[in-house]
């Protein structure tokens, strides 16, 4: 029986490796991001590795578009077995000066649209005992050293979104575990090779993160892994 995974927030690094890992395990991959050219290149790269992938250009900050996306994927590729949420917003870096719309946008991507995607995919996820896999970051950890670094990095909005995703992971897991739906996250606490944050000093291999996601949804014993 074929399986389908939605990779939302597709780009270089983590999501590319997740698409490749799950695709190598027989999943058909729905690549989602705003940039159509990036998606087309991703489909081509995966096809070269005998992985079936399809592009679905979507603005993941718009909840209505996300709900429509899930329907489009289902219609084109069949029932959804897994949702990987790799999208994030980087606005509202300084909470003392950030405009309202920037902070709203951060949570639209990290929380509102993620919940909308889960709700829309839930009938399939329940029926097929599927998985919701969330990329998270260490900026959300409650620690004075981390908070000082967040301020230094002008990443306050991202840190709040990370903290909210941490709680969301736990709440969704508690709600859906009885339905056989796995919800888990990988918290990344360093720079990942090949991402926009990598200035040549990144140390984390995105393939290791993808492998951890696959392990989490296979074993279903833990809801959080930290790399």
Summed up:
With 227 residues, the chain is an alpha/beta fold. The protein has 7 helices and 7 strands.
Key descriptive features of the protein:
227 residues; alpha/beta; seven-stranded parallel sheet; globular
- CA-based shape: globular
Averaged pLDDT:
96
The count of helical stretches stands at 7
**SSE sequence, one letter per element:** EHEHEHEHEHHEHE
Low-confidence stretches: none
**Number of distinct beta strands:** 7
Strand order of the largest sheet: 3-2-1-4-5-6-7
Helix content: 40-55%
Explain the overall architecture.
The chain has helices spanning 14-24, 36-47, 63-77, 100-127, 144-152, 156-176, 206-219, and strands spanning 3-8, 27-33, 53-57, 82-85, 131-137, 182-188, 224-226. The chain is α/β, with parallel strands linked by helices. α1 links the parallel β1 and β2. The two termini are 32 Å apart. The mean pLDDT is 96.
Topology summary:
Elements: E1 3-8, H1 14-24, E2 27-33, H2 36-47, E3 53-57, H3 63-77, E4 82-85, H4 100-127, E5 131-137, H5 144-152, H6 156-176, E6 182-188, H7 206-219, E7 224-226
Parallel strand pairs: 1-2, 1-4, 2-3, 4-5, 5-6, 6-7
Helix pairs in contact: 1-7, 3-4, 4-6
